[in-house]
Specification:
Layout: H1 4-22, H2 29-44, H3 53-70, H4 78-93, H5 102-120, H6 127-142, H7 151-168, H8 176-190, H9 200-217, H10 225-243, H11 249-267, H12 274-294, H13 298-315, H14 319-322, H15 337-354, H16 358-366, H17 370-389, H18 393-410
Helix pairs in contact: 1-2, 1-3, 2-3, 3-4, 3-5, 4-5, 5-6, 5-7, 6-7, 7-8, 7-9, 8-9, 9-10, 9-11, 10-11, 11-12, 11-13, 12-13, 15-16, 15-17, 17-18
């Protein structure tokens, strides 16, 4: 009653502190982030567009960042939380305009672009459209986040822009070589300001991303594959030296995963180092998985598990000889041959169910190995039967329509 705006600002600050506390090892991240979300809601009771338009906008911006972080945790509804975060950024941008607050406007556009990239990773999303919206948001941010106005924010946006260009290059119909080169140029621009002296951790992040990009470029026709992969490994070594001195385990775990991917590519070179490279890749991927598990980071934990399953398949018959070198006990069930087959079927089922049109569904079906098509159809039938038992008639009908369409794809034309 005495000072509603002061009370609201205190709640805002409390939410920020709770969010920071949630990032520390050993904390209950989900509980702390939910408390922070409640504090932002309390602040917004008084930080209204009429009472304090910029305060309202900044709180919505902070709330969106928190919702995005909460979406990464185990057991959360990721799609719903990311959509709520996008709505919060939209509300913030009603008042964080270029005229009112150009740098805050630009930073919010940068955050919004990052969120659009995350939304694009969800099943059933129009990735091309979301990527284009993200490109536009980064371009808008760079109108104001210039080297003169804010060199480190400018570098951060160039780094994020490079990641997006690399992701866009993976879509069908894109000029992959051109987009990857543009991404490399954007990383170079970021590194003009993200130096080891000015910002060592940000420098390491960009070099880590650049190493991944060089590994992707190495797969392009006409490229010196061995040379690019060695450059990528060298950058990875430099990044690990920096992150090993950082108390935050998340960037280190992400670098372990990236280096494991590069080592997988190096293992395919005919240089006699296959077993050594695969052993290191397995060790790094397993360490990353355990770190993500400890941090309760669902998105990265799932990615690390898929990376280990990919490694398991690439190792082939050598896996049984390589795994004991980790001294990690027996492999988890999802890393056995049967577990991987089950995982693949679930992935194909998800892709087919999420297909927005017959063409996309046909493309998904074509990617299914022949020996998995019958088990996949059986799984869909079981899901339809389960939906019937649960009284979900529309879901059961949809699944049976998909099954019939898949069988028609197999009929001779």
């Amino acid at each position: 009653d005495a000072s509603p705006l002061g009370y609201a600002q205190t709640q805002n600050n409390r939410a920020t502190l709770l969010s920071q506390l949630a990032s520390l090892p050993g904390q209950d991240r989900a509980s702390l982030l939910q408390q922070a979300l409640d504090a932002y809601a309390e602040a917004l009771r008084f930080l209204t567009p009429d009472a304090s338009p910029l305060g309202y906008a900044q709180t919505q911006n902070n709330r969106a960042t928190l919702l995005s972080e909460l979406a990464s945790l185990l057991g959360q509804n990721r799609a719903s939380l990311l959509q709520q975060a996008l709505d919060a950024y939209t509300k913030a941008l009603r008042f964080l305009t270029p005229d009112a607050s150009p740098l805050n406007y630009a930073q919010t556009q940068n955050n919004r672009a990052n969120l659009l990239r995350k939304l694009a990773s969800l099943p059933g999303q129009d990735r091309a459209s979301l990527f284009q919206q993200a490109l536009d948001a980064y371009a808008e941010a760079l109108r104001f986040l210039t080297p003169d106005a804010s060199p480190l924010d400018y570098a951060q946006t160039q780094n994020n822009h490079a990641i997006l260009l690399s992701e866009l290059a993976s879509l069908p119909g894109q000029d992959r070589a051109s987009l990857l080169q543009q991404a490399l140029d954007a990383y170079a621009e970021a590194l003009r300001f993200r130096t080891p002296e000015a910002s060592p951790l940000d420098y390491a992040t960009t070099q880590n991303n650049r190493a991944t990009l060089l590994s992707e470029l190495a797969s392009m026709p006409g490229k010196d594959r061995a040379s690019l992969l060695q450059q990528a490994l060298g950058l990875s070594d430099e990044v690990l030296r920096i992150y090993s001195r950082n108390p935050d385990p998340l960037p280190l775990a992400m670098t372990f995963g990236n280096r494991a991917n590069i080592l997988l590519e190096v293992a395919s070179l005919d240089d006699g180092s296959r077993m050594e490279r695969l052993t290191e890749a397995l060790q790094l991927a397993w360490t990353a998985f355990n770190l993500f598990t400890k941090l309760q980071h669902q998105q990265y934990q799932e990615l690390a598990a898929r990376q280990l399953q990919k490694l398991r398949m690439i190792c082939g018959d050598d896996f049984d000889a390589l795994w004991p070198r980790l001294k990690a006990g027996p492999p988890p069930p999802w890393l056995t041959q049967e577990g991987i087959i089950h995982m693949l079927i679930q992935q194909y089922v998800s892709a087919i169910i999420a297909s927005p049109d017959p063409r996309t569904m046909a493309e998904s079906w074509q990617q299914v190995p022949q020996n998995l098509k019958t088990p996949l159809l059986v799984t869909l039938e079981e899901l339809a039967t389960h939906a019937d038992k649960q009284g979900e008639a529309k879901t059961a009908e949809l699944l049976r329509q998909r099954i019939e369409a898949l069988r028609q794809f197999e009929e001779p034309q």
